[in-house]
């Protein structure tokens, strides 16, 4: 009898679980489709600024924050080059300020990730977290870009504590110090020469025996006396205590290892825009940056606007991202006004 009772209890629990799963499924499937005038995908300086302007224009924007609420700045410690913060601020605190200001004007900020889009138009259909469908008259894409990393455990350990993917953002903190930068393209060359103006010594680690940068950029690097090029080399480990103190590198031809004594390690091997779900709809360059009509945030599809690092492969700064977010909201407002959508 005891075994029969246990078996019945077990089957009852399984049946209850199945009913619960089906109940949740039907709740999701039967959830009404929401229609909004302005949908913003992604947060960060561009998304939050777009939200502030859209909310002040009474567009009642809805924002889904994405995988990294607040964007790349949430992984940055000190921010000293953004206007309005004379004493500097922390990246996460700055993004919280942006969020609070957007909410103050009525932005509906939600957790969630856009997983599918249908931009057939004129109303655009966005699926959130694979289960919620939203229809929107205007779409502002502020999904940003992610830095490419080497994949070292120590790289992530010291990210924000001596490891950076932005020399322009963080180079100032290493004034008069010795640093290393890894990369071989135009961005790496430009950032190396930028760092050379601030730092005592810049080690530029290049995996091959040549650079991919343009001839003009290569000449600038070669003519800069405090840049030392280290050819045919890879980074094995970034060392440190509370911050970076060195990098262990290896020559891939001779297998000879070397320790660089540095306080900063910059990764300049490129960025990947977070735009994959739009590749069937929007015009992009070979890397995946969304193409916009010059001087605007407009894409090739009416009512769809791209702002911030999702479309900017040149500047990639918080202040330029915020400016483009403003453009996106103003373009969206004008688009709605021209079509009499209120």
Task: Using the alpha-carbon principal axes, give the shape.
Answer: elongated
CATH topology of the largest domain: FAD/NAD(P)-binding domain
Rg value? 24 Å
Strand content: 25-35%
Note poorly predicted spans.
none
Key terms:
alpha/beta, FAD/NAD(P)-binding domain, 342 residues, 8 helices, 7-stranded mixed β-sheet
Describe what this molecule looks like in 3D.
The chain has 342 residues and is α/β, with parallel strands linked by helices. The protein has 2 domains: 34-146 and 271-338, FAD/NAD(P)-binding domain; 149-267, FAD/NAD(P)-binding domain. 30% of the residues lie in helices and 26% in strands. Strand 12, helix 7 and strand 13 form a beta-alpha-beta unit. The chain is elongated and about 65 Å long. The model has no long low-confidence stretch (mean pLDDT 91).
Secondary structure layout plus pairing:
Elements: H1 2-29, E1 34-41, H2 44-56, E2 62-64, E3 78-79, E4 89-90, H3 91-104, E5 108-110, E6 114-118, E7 124-128, E8 132-141, E9 145-147, H4 153-157, E10 163-164, H5 167-170, E11 178-182, H6 186-196, E12 201-205, H7 215-222, E13 227-230, E14 233-240, E15 244-251, E16 257-261, E17 264-267, E18 271-273, E19 304-306, H8 318-338
Parallel strand pairs: 1-2, 1-8, 2-5, 8-19, 10-17, 11-12, 11-17, 12-13
Antiparallel strand pairs: 3-4, 6-7, 7-8, 9-18, 14-15, 15-16
Helix pairs in contact: 2-3, 2-8, 6-7
Summarize the structure.
The protein has two domains: 34-146 and 271-338, 3-Layer(bba) Sandwich (FAD/NAD(P)-binding domain), CATH 3.50.50; 149-267, FAD/NAD(P)-binding domain (3-Layer(bba) Sandwich). It has eight helices and 19 strands. The chain has helices spanning 2-29, 44-56, 91-104, 153-157, 167-170, 186-196, 215-222, 318-338; strands at residues 34-41, 62-64, 78-79, 89-90, 108-110, 114-118, 124-128, 132-141, 145-147, 163-164, 178-182, 201-205, 227-230, 233-240, 244-251, 257-261, 264-267, 271-273, 304-306.
């Amino acid at each position: 009898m005891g075994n029969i009772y246990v078996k019945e209890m077990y089957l009852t629990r399984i049946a209850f679980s199945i009913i619960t799963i089906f109940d949740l499924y039907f709740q999701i499937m039967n959830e009404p489709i929401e229609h909004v005038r302005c949908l913003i995908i992604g947060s960060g300086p561009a998304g939050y600024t777009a939200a502030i302007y859209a909310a002040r224009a009474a567009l009642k924007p809805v924002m889904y924050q994405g995988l990294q609420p607040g964007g790349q700045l949430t992984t940055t410690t000190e921010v000293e080059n953004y206007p309005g913060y004379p004493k500097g601020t922390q990246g996460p605190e700055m993004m919280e300020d942006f969020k609070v200001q957007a909410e103050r004007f009525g932005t509906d900020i939600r957790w969630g990730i856009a997983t599918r889009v249908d931009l057939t138009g004129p109303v655009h259909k966005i699926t959130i977290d694979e289960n919620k469908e939203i229809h929107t008259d205007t779409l502002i894409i502020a999904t940003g870009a992610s830095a490419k990393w080497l994949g070292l455990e120590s790289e992530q350990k010291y990210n924000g504590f001596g490891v950076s993917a932005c020399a322009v953002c963080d180079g100032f903190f290493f004034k008069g110090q010795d640093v290393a930068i890894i990369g071989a393209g135009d961005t790496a060359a430009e950032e190396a020469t930028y760092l050379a103006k601030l730092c005592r010594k810049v080690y530029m680690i290049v995996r091959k025996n040549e650079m991919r940068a343009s001839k003009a950029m290569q000449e600038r690097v070669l003519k800069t006396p405090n840049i030392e090029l280290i050819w045919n080399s890879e980074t094995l480990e970034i060392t440190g205590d509370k911050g970076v103190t060195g990098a262990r590198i290896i020559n891939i031809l001779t297998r000879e290892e070397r320790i660089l004594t540095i306080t900063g390690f910059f990764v300049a091997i490129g960025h990947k825009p977070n735009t994959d779900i739009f590749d069937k709809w929007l015009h992009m360059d070979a890397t995946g940056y969304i193409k916009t009509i010059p001087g605007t945030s407009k894409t090739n599809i009416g009512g769809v606007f791209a702002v911030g690092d999702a479309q900017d492969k040149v500047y990639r700064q918080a202040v330029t991202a915020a400016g483009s977010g403003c453009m996106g909201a103003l373009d969206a407002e004008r688009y709605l006004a021209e079509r009499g959508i209120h």
